[in-house]
Design brief:
This protein is mainly α and about 120 residues long. Helix content is about 95%, strand content about 0%.
Length: about 120
Amino acid sequence: MNAMEVLDIVLAAMLVVLIGVGIYATFLLVRTLGEARTFMTEMRERLTPLLKKADVTIDAVNAELLRLDGIVTQVEEVSGTVSSTTRVATEIIRSPMNKVAEVGSKLIGALRTRRR
């Protein structure tokens, strides 16, 4: 055996090892892709009902927010009405009180002038 024959045998052995490594890498890649496909299928099966439930929940929350908005609007309207009523009641009460105070001050002024 000369050096060329030994080199051919070594290169052939290395080629067989490289082919074996390639086949093993391809096998691992195929297995990983199969597991990824299975994982994606399971995730799709699990997430679809969850997303539907989330959609229903969000719709319910939106409905409650709309109801709450209506309540807040009514409270604002009642608050405005109470404010207006309070203003009118204050004016109604204040006007006679001012008249009574005015008459009283005139009476006191008249009494003072009589005493002198």
